Predict the 3D structure of the following.
Amino acid sequence: MSDARAILLNLDFFEGIARVHDASVDLVIADPPYGLGKDYGNDSDRLNGEAYLEFSRRWIDAILPKLKPTGSLYVFLTWQHSPEVFSYLKTHLLMVNEIIWDRKVPSMGGSTRKFSSVHDTIGFFAKSRDYYFDVDSVRIPYDPETKRARTRSIFVGKKWLEVGYNPKDLWSVTRLHRQDPERADHPTQKPLEIIERMVLASAPPDGTVLDPFMGSGTTAVAAVKHRRRFTGFEINPGYFATARLRLKGLDEEPARTGGGAKLAVVR
């Protein structure tokens, strides 16, 4: 298993995390159940209130020792729980950013008793101030019109104008719809574009990415596609099979994955 680029474990994260060595992980990307009652094949998303916060503290405590001193953690949450979970994380890690993912949901009615919720909250945390971060790998190119508008002498030769700008902390990326080619059979699948940005910026080349709640395997795909090593846990057999299938599909793109996924599957 040590030679595998991707290790998928069809296990409860809490049962399997002991298999991961302490201080061995460069990047954790966590997309835990939100506590909104969705059906993941078990009752993991039916927790609320203090039970949800206790679950959050439990997985955080289990994963923190696995991070390298230069490691980082991203966690997806809803606004209902992010204040409490972020506060707990801040007692252990440095908070780098609160990122808002604007899902670009079109205006289609909605509640008449509150403003429609159209975003997810992402916390970006680091183990220390020496955390790895490669902003050049995720810069967004300026469009030709913007470049033409920056023709004054003070802008000539500026690196940022040529290589693009640093992504802001508001990420407007359309949620996945059923008709999207990328879409797998998972109710809360995250767009590959978002996960790739995290992997490129916060995991060094050939670094190790860990996903405690793997779902449909988007983080696995992003990690292997960009030649990072990956370990992921998924308790649901159906979602585990989906993740495995998506990762095996990368074997058809050896030029981008360094010779295929080199997949190790642990049931």
Notes: The radius of gyration is 19 Å. DSSP finds nine helices and nine strands in the chain. The mean pLDDT is 86. Strands lie at 6-9, 25-30, 67-77, 94-102, 119-126, 170-172, 208-211, 229-233, 263-266.
